Amino acid sequence: MAKKVVYSLLACCLLYFLLQSVQPTVVHASSHDNNVEWNGLFSDQGPLYDSALEPTCSTPLTLSMRTFHQDITSANIKYYDTADSSFHWVAMSFSNTDATQRFDIWKGTIPASCSIKLPFSDQRWLSHCLV
Predict the structure, then answer these.
(1) Phi, psi values for residue 17, rounded to 5°
(2) How far is CA 98 from CA 8, 78, 101, in A?
(3) What are phi and psi of 93, to 5 degrees?
């Protein structure tokens, strides 16, 4: 009987020390830290991110981009316009946070015209640092 008590006490002590040595995994949240969480960026040509799949001359084109919640402070769309053969920038603005509270949606609108406009890239600013 005494051996069972000693073994139980030793087992409890061992379990206690094992549990004390286990460190929880730290999950780093996105923030305004001059570090873009690239795996949180997403956009495509689907209806959630592109307002006009087949725009006409009178249709402005609103593009959206998903980021991790509070990961960036600003974003821009860079596009090429065949009317003047040059690149232009459109500022994106924060639109909303999704229902899961994990992602932010940013939107920017390319003005309507009959010239061909080719979205080239987006640009993200963190605090005062261009990424």
Answers:
(1) -65, -35
(2) 51, 25, 5
(3) -130, 155
